[in-house]
Structure formats: structure tokens, C-alpha cells
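Holo prediction — phenylalanine.
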Amino acid sequence: MRLIMGMALALILFSFYVSRADDTIKIGVILAMTGGTSAFGQQTWTGMQIGRNIRPTVLGKKVELILLDNKSDKIESANAAQRLIQKDKVIGIIGDVASSNSLAIAPIAEDNHIPHISPSSTNPIVTLNRKYVFRACFIDPFQGEVMAKFAYNELKARKAAVLTDIGQDYSVGLTSAFAKTYKKLGGQIVRQVNYQSGDQDFTAQLTAIKETDPDIIAITGYYTEIALIARQARELGIKATLIAGDGAEAPELTEIGGEAVDGLYYTTHFDEKAVLTPLGKKYVEMFRKQNKSTPDALGALGADAYLIILDAIERTSSTNPEKIRDAIEKTKDFQGITGAITINKNHDAVKNVVIRQVKGRDSVYISSVNP
Ligand code: PHE
């Protein structure tokens, strides 16, 4: 009798578990919540939560986001992807921001046939020749071209020095894209020097740059090092205008850089002044209500990555990862937060580049460049 009752109870609990599991859709999220690029993870997660508040369900099911912190590390990123697929049985993965980390996640998603979408990794290799990997943003050959044209045509800079973080795929790729267009336009790269994420002292590189008296210095890495480089450059008496890519986008840029980063130009993905879609307007309003800061690109892209997956699930009326993959691939003119999103044949989004300039503690909108 006891045994039968026990079995009946187990059956009830099991069916409860099954029906519950059926009612939720699990999406894995891998972000740098701690470590060298933690500002990226924090900003993305904040925005993704707003995206989830805008749209918490699909096909009548609740969406559960399972967040794992990769500690700004490639190996942790790969381990997180394995865990989300094997243990949590997610139907898709969103993440990371830094291209090197997304490059560690992508092959695992690919091997396991789980759709993976990076909100903001811009290195072209992330999606290259991959069936299951996508991104919600533009790529660095375009970003580097916009930086170079802005430097040459708008800033009238003829001599550029470039600093590259050789530990980051993003920085290496952005430097080569920038240099290619800049030279084509007739500009001269007077000095090209390297550093690595985590470095603190850039005196040797900056002394070598100072000798060449450049009009601009392009720094293609991430915010912490950009801020330190800016400070040390000013201390050495270098007056050249500073320019960076989307890696500059973090409150820490001005917190660490102070006056040294004032006037720095950078390219990015989003500006509330350039928001046109109803979803974008709603996002900005919700963001403003909840935060004191200006809505950043990372949050907006995080929310878009989430909404792209939900849109795909709805169009395919299925939670099967293969079907979701097929539907993401067909994303066309989706009216997202950062604009109308179309996934091209390389699985990248075709989007505008926004140029901003640091002014005091904030940054201001300069212009938008169409692809
Ligand atoms: N594009 C950067 C990379 O690929 C990440 C990034 C995106 C950082 C947007 C800030 C803002 O590594």
C-alpha cells in the first residue's frame, strides 16, 4: 500500500514537473558580469530585462532567462555554453559582448545545433561560415570604415597613430579595418603599437607615438585601457584628438578617464535621438523611468537580441531549436529597439553606425552613418 501511494505521489510530482517545464521556454544568457569588461555585461543585462518586461511570453509560454557570468573570460564562456546546453537544455543562447568570448561560445552552439545570437560582438569571424550563429549588430569592417572616414573627412586628420589590444580579436580586426580605409583615403598611419587587456602602463607606446606628432590617435580596445591611455597621453603632453570604436561605451570611460577623455569621439550602435521605431521609443521611456543614465547601446542590443529570438519563435510556432534557427535566419525588417533589423546572408544585422563625442561625464550625438 505504502509503495503504491509512494508511486502515485511520484507520478503526480513528475507530471507537475513536466507540465511546468512545458510552460516555460529557457534561453541561456552568457555575459561578463564581473572581470575586465563587466560594464558590458551589466549594461546588456539591464537592457535585456527591459526587453523581457516588454515581451515576457511567446506562444502562451513564459520565457526564463538563465544568466551565467563568464567573468570576462573565453574559457568560462565555453564552459557556460556547455552547461546551458547539456544541463539546462536551453533552446537558444544570447551572448557575449566581447568578440573573443562570443568566438568561444559559437563553435559549441554550432556543434550542438543550438541557435546562438550575440547582441553586440562585431568581429566578422563570429558568424563566419556558421549555420547556428547570428548577431544583432553591424560588423567591424563597416565600423572601421566609418571611423576612418570620420577622421579623414570630418576631423581632417592626415596623420594617425593606432593602439591595438592584441589580446582581443575585436581590437585586432577593428584596427585593420580602420587602417585599410584610412590609407585608401590618403591618410598616413604614422605609428602602430600594441598592448594587452589588463596593462596599466602605456608610457613606452605613447612616447613612440608622441615623436610622430599625429593628428589623431585611434584606440581600438575596451574602455578601461582607453581611459588609462588617454590619461597617460595627456600627462605626456600629447594633444592629438582621440577616437575609438564601440569598445569605449561604458560609464567607466569617463569615471576613469576624467578630463583626459573629454572630446573623444567613438562609434556605436544606438542613440535615443536617432530612435524611430515604436519599440525603441517604448524602451527609452522604460529605461529612463528606471535609470538615471542615458540609454546605452549595449542594453538596447541586448533587448533586441532577446526580441529577435521571440519573434522567430512566434513566426515558426515552435520551440524546436532547428526551427528557431531557420526563423532567425529569415528575420526581415523586424521593427526592433535599435531600428529595423534584417539578418543578411552572413547572419549579421545591417545597421547604421552612430558617432558620439564625450562631453564631461556624458557623451553627445554627432551623427549617424547608413550602411
Ligand atoms: N563590439 C565589441 C566587440 O566585438 C563589443 C561592444 C559592443 C562593446 C558594443 C561596447 C558596445 O568586442
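READOUT: Residues 2-23 form the longest helix (22 residues).
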